[in-house]
TrEMBL record:
Ranges for domain Phosphomannose isomerase type I catalytic: 38-178
Superkingdom field: Eukaryota
Domain Phosphomannose isomerase type I C-terminal: 360-404
The name this protein goes by in its record: Mannose-6-phosphate isomerase
Gene Ontology CC annotation, any one: cytosol
CDD domains associated with the record: cupin_PMI_type_I_N (cd07011)
Reaction(s) catalysed by this chain's protein: D-mannose 6-phosphate = D-fructose 6-phosphate
Domain Phosphomannose isomerase type I helical insertion positions: 197-282
GO BP: carbohydrate metabolic process; GDP-mannose biosynthetic process; response to cadmium ion; response to L-ascorbic acid; response to zinc ion
Active site feature: R321
Amino acid sequence: MGAPSTAPAPSPPALPEASAPDDRAPPEPAAPELPPPLRLRCGVQQYEWGRRGAASLVARLSAADSAAEIDEARPYAELWMGTHPAAPSAVLPGGEPLGTWLARNPAALGPAVAARWAGDLPFLFKVLAVAKPLSIQAHPDKGLAELLHAMRPATYRDANHKPEMAIAVTDFRALFGFAGIQELKDVIRTVPEVAGLIGHEDADKLMTVKEYHGGNDVKSSLQSAFAKLMTASKEAVSEAVNKLKGRLNDESEIRTLTEKEELVLSLERQYPEDVGVLAALLFNYVKLSPGEAIYIGANEPHAYLSGECIECMATSDNVVRAGLTPKYRDVQTLCSMLTYKQIFPEILRGVPVQPYVRRYTPPTDEFEVDCCLLPPGEVVVMPPVPGPSIFLVMTGEGEVQADSMSDGEKAKEGDVFFVPAHTEVRLSASGHATMQLYRAGVNSRALYACNAAAAGKRSQLQNICEMAS
């Protein structure tokens, strides 16, 4: 090493003396040894809208994993895979909550995820089996979630936002976002029961507004009309719904009802005299085939109607409801928080990332979902990523192998695995049927952006070290 300089120099933080110029950069920390994939036992939510008994995919997956007997009389609505305290997954065989295990093993999240999301899993992975429509609802953005949680923690139990994505497993039906202005005008013109509750002033504003006049005109008129409808008195709503039902039943004798009109009658049978029956006419009616998906951002109205899906979201259970539900309705909050956009949702179909694997990437950092359809006898390698993943075997059977495992783990329908960061997973299908498997993980764009930022900081520190030497 050369002699130290005698010229004056700045006083950087003291650094250990390096033995050679190439060793002056701070060494990369040694990667901690990570455990192999962990089997999880996952919680089931038995909400009343769920499919009952073995007709529910949730029940079949849960029973296949735990060998529990299915109660044919009970609804099986949601399978939760994650750390949310309302139904945390447990690590097998001991049953320790996954969140507790992660607190002891933060390296399994990867440094970027552990730092950004305070040592917790940022996504909640679900399977839904919908027999009866869920409430008309929206999920608050981060700022509103924090405010609602502070004001009413018993109702809004966490302070996180809840962007979500639903991938259809069967034919899936939903309401999502407001219909275009022409469709809304048709409703006002042809559905007097809705126009009457909105009132002449707001109905006239919507009938005269033009799309090319700008979004603010439409938004203001739509917000005022929707608020009038949703805050109408119980008696007025009951009278309007019953009139609409009677009129449509009469008209069905002389003409074919539209899909929306058939939907309204179906909703009325399940939620009689509910304002949500009328509100459904103002929303887009979305029909997904298996493999198709929609992303639902903050403050967008929606309601799942029927079918089964894979769902992934930020780790939250914040729901603001206003119709089609016996639960608490926060109508004022819902009406004030919505975006009032009038765009039919983009239908996502996934992008191939390798043979047998398609990826669904939403515009949020917390999650992405891969769908793997692996024919018998085939193998696919899921490359390591710098964040955690949860794998669900939906159908079929095979084997899961990771570098950290001495032997492969058998994988069958209903099995759920937590896979630590930086773990390569080799999947092989056996038997006579295709193995269908879903992986939820942190959005790759966010992961690699975090890693690039971390690399930039390391490079900056290296430059400081070189200048100091």
